[in-house]
Amino acid sequence: RAVPAEVAARLTVIEGVDLVCRMEDAEGQPLRREQPGPPPGDGAWAVVERGGEALRFRPGGEVADLRGGRWELEGAAAVLEATVVDGRLSSEEYPDPLARVWSALSAPHAGDFIVSLAPGFEAVDWGGVTHAGGGSHGALHAGDSLGPLLFVGCGPASADEKDQWTLRDVAPVIRDHFGL
Questions:
Q1: Phi then psi for 174, rounded to 5 degrees?
Q2: Cα–Cα dist 15/106, whole Å
Q3: CA angle 91-67-154, nearest 5°?
Q4: Residue pair 53/81 in contact by the 8 Å Cβ criterion
Q5: N or C: which end of the chain has fewer CB within 10 A?
Q6: Continuous segment of H or E residues that includes residue 5
Q7: Residue pair 154/173 in contact by the 8 Å Cβ criterion
Q8: What is the pTM of this model?
Q9: What is the Cα 8 distance to its own chain's centre?
Q10: DSSP E strands: which ranges in the chain?
Q11: 4 by DSSP, 3-state: which?
Q12: 81 or 170: which leads in pLDDT
């Protein structure tokens, strides 16, 4: 099996790789999952590296995101071009970054690493398909993450009802509209 630190070091120097994300245990060692499922134990941390800096985080803690999630942070929030003001983390460049990275890394079939590519770069998928020259998706950048959300005949009275809307907000609005 590859040595995780060596893999991380190689990923960070590949042209077009913007963010390298992985899980670590409480001691900072690579978290290994031998079978599908969420990370074992309560000591798991997500790590995001970019430009030689790292941010470690996990649920809980004193820092809130724009959707009300609470996080414990160690390191440079600047890795995600984020700021923490009055205990709230926000990033224009990477919308909802902590929850999205945590969700991706803790998914049952997540790999040991997740990379987010820089704007203008594409990765070929397992089937040999790419979106080069067309649409893009999957990176954490705002350009790959944000899109219009329109409610017609249902939904909030104002877009300002939430500091940050996501696709997770659509189903509850529809359920509420139809009384489900």
A1: -65, -45
A2: 26
A3: 115
A4: no
A5: N
A6: helix 4-11
A7: yes
A8: 0.85
A9: 17
A10: 17-24, 45-50, 53-64, 70-75, 83-85, 88-90, 113-117
A11: helix
A12: 81
